[in-house]
């Protein structure tokens, strides 16, 4: 809890808020006791609606003066160093940053701290880490073999400077597998993909849309993934997959459709 001094308003106990202008802008700062002391909503709860300065009840009156002060403040986007020149009302900062086209991405390679825009990230990755990746082309299938304990494969698209990751986690019954795109969450392109695992005459297949993430960390896939049973692991301990990633305009499926199919001989 921070203590703020605002001339003509009184003592302010406030936890900074970045809520949007719509749907309760600056709701954190609405609470004021009758003596003019102000606290944010979360602090009021912690203090059990008892003012920390004078012990009067607090949490029932808004401080519109402070709200006006905050609404008049203009701040820069946090992506300014990456090229964003927007000057924003304080209340609109978070909403803008969620969709800012200058949002950077982090290099997914372990122990690398590089951060940059998607195309710069691809250039960096190609120069520094290409030996640890598999290169492919959109719309063409390619094989992937994962060793017994391997959790991921970096995928470099050759023509459009886009990075993907095939992500794998282990469960008692098998492996959860999916593909993710390294891009800002505001990235407007959608890439569908197909994963196929085969075991003799049986196969399991996933068709869906690759989710975008600006910062990948090794963790189990939580959605849009397929469980490949342990029976599909070869005698050499490898999981063999066939992967195809399509350009968005040539995608055979829409973003509203995903499927996982287990096929066995009839």
TrEMBL record:
Stretches assigned to coiled coil: none
Residue stretches making up the SIAH-type domain: 72-130
Species of the source: Sesamum radiatum
Single GO molecular function: zinc ion binding
Keywords for the protein's UniProt record, in alphabetical order: Metal-binding, Zinc, Zinc-finger
Function: E3 ubiquitin-protein ligase that mediates ubiquitination and subsequent proteasomal degradation of target proteins. E3 ubiquitin ligases accept ubiquitin from an E2 ubiquitin-conjugating enzyme in the form of a thioester and then directly transfers the ubiquitin to targeted substrates. It probably triggers the ubiquitin-mediated degradation of different substrates.
InterPro entries in the cross-refs: SINL_plant, Znf_RING/FYVE/PHD, Znf_SIAH
Protein name (record): E3 ubiquitin-protein ligase SINA-like 6
PROSITE patterns with a match to the protein in the record: ZF_SIAH
């Amino acid at each position: 809890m921070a203590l703020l001094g605002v001339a003509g308003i009184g003592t302010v106990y406030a936890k900074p808020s970045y809520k949007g202008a719509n749907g309760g802008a600056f709701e954190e700062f609405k609470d004021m006791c009758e003596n003019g002391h102000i606290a944010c909503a979360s602090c009021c709860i912690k203090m059990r609606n008892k003012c920390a300065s004078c012990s009067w009840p607090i949490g029932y009156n808004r401080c519109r003066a402070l709200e006006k002060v905050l609404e008049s403040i203009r701040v820069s986007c946090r992506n300014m160093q990456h090229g964003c020149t927007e000057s924003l009302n304080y209340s609109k900062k978070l909403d803008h940053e969620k969709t800012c086209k200058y949002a950077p991405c982090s290099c997914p390679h372990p122990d690398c701290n590089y951060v940059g825009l998607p195309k710069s990230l691809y250039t960096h990755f190609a120069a520094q880490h290409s030996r640890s990746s598999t290169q492919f082309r959109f719309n063409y299938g390619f094989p992937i073999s994962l060793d017994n304990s391997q959790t991921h494969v970096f995928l470099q698209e050759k023509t459009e400077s886009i990075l993907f990751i095939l992500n794998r986690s282990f469960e008692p019954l098998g492996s959860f597998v999916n593909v993710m795109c390294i891009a800002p969450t505001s990235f407007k392109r959608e890439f569908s993909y197909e994963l196929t695992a085969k075991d003799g005459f049986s196969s399991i297949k996933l068709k869906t849309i690759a989710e975008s993430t600006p910062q990948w960390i090794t963790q189990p896939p939580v959605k849009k993934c397929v469980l490949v049973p342990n029976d599909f692991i070869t005698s050499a301990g490898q999981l063999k997959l066939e992967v195809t990633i399509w350009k968005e305009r040539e995608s055979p499926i829409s973003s509203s459709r995903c499927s996982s199919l287990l096929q066995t001989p009839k």
